[in-house]
């Protein structure tokens, strides 16, 4: 690796230390052959590679942009949403990190198994509800005293936003998010086992003058069937989507309706400019082809067929005889 290459001055210093006895060559060899131990915490298992985390970040960057547009239209106020961080940690650690009373939207993502949790800072949820009800977007944190009407309004706000989540994942997999549960106390919510690895995507959101966080918690079991698709190699392959059958048929119809210029070339002749300027009606130009040679039929400016002249229904016509050699036309 490039990071292990020594400069010439470092090599000279190392050789000098060995020759003067400051460094023992045998000890140096033992140090090189000794096993390098890396501390690993089994309680905090890292089950996603950096490449997969980057793919999840890319998807949720798109989701943040879609959500910004959606909430801006719904709430008619200044909205700014961006991905703050993407981490993997045990589910228990995530639950301990969020407030004791908060807004928890749990939704399914068919056809994937399991559920995804969207935790919304209460200040943000109240500011959104205030805008929906015609207010200025002020925030009051009284999450433990939500009325049935307030619960329904807040739940509807984020349920409508799930369409954007499906669109954000559309380049990778078609999902159908569906709200399944609304809760305010994380202690009453047990989605997976405490030690299950989850990916937590934190979105920084600002609603008018109020700012806060939206955390998306995706368990490993949900992403497990599509983990191979989260690699950078898959993204490079899937940038170019295969056309659907109906798209191919529509393309064929459009091609069949396209106009092409077809011309038959009787022959050619070389003239000087002086002879060309002196041409008169009735003059005869001698061509370089004989009467028994086939004509060259061009599509646009490309020679494609050979043909013979004739008449059809008292009109001049050309009958196609054969294809021209295609040795140099593979890419056309």
TrEMBL record:
The organism of origin for this protein: Metabacillus litoralis
Assigned GO CC terms: bacterial-type flagellum basal body; plasma membrane
UniProt protein name: Flagellar motor switch protein FliM
Gene3D superfamilies on file: CheC-like, SpoA-like
Family in the record: Belongs to the FliM family.
Topology in the lipid bilayer: Peripheral membrane protein
CDD domains (alphabetical): FliM
Residues in Flagellar motor switch protein FliN-like C-terminal domain copies: 254-323
Example of a GO MF term: cytoskeletal motor activity
Superkingdom as given in the UniProt entry: Bacteria
């Amino acid at each position: 690796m490039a990071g292990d290459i020594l400069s010439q001055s470092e090599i000279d210093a190392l050789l000098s230390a060995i020759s003067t006895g400051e460094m023992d060559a045998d000890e140096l060899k033992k140090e090189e052959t000794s096993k390098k131990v890396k501390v690993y915490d089994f309680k905090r298992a890292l089950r996603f590679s950096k490449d997969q985390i980057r793919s999840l970040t890319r998807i949720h960057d798109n989701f943040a942009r879609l959500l910004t547009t959606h909430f801006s239209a719904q709430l008619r106020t200044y909205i700014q949403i961006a991905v703050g961080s993407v981490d993997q940690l045990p589910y228990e650690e995530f639950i301990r990190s969020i407030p004791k009373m908060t807004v928890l939207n749990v939704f399914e993502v068919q056809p994937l198994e399991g559920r995804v949790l969207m935790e919304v800072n209460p200040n943000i949820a109240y500011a959104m509800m205030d805008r929906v009800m015609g207010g200025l977007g002020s925030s009051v944190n009284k999450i433990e005293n939500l009325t049935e009407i307030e619960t329904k309004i807040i739940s509807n706000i984020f349920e409508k936003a799930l369409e954007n989540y499906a669109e954000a994942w559309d380049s990778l997999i078609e999902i159908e998010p569906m709200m399944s549960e609304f809760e305010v106390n994380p202690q009453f919510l047990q989605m997976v086992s405490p030690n299950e690895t989850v990916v937590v995507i934190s979105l920084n959101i600002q609603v008018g003058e109020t700012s806060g966080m939206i955390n998306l918690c995706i368990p490993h079991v949900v992403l497990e069937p599509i983990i191979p698709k989260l690699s950078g190699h898959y993204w490079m392959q899937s940038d170019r989507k295969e056309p659907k059958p109906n798209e191919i048929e529509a393309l064929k119809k459009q091609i069949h309706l396209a106009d092409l210029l077809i011309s038959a070339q009787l022959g050619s002749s070389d003239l000087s400019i002086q002879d060309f300027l002196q041409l008169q009606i009735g003059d005869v130009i001698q061509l370089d082809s004989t009467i028994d040679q086939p004509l060259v039929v061009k599509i646009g400016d490309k020679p494609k067929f050979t043909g013979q002249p004739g008449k059809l229904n008292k009109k001049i016509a050309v009958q196609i005889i054969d294809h021209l050699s295609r040795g140099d036309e593979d890419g056309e």
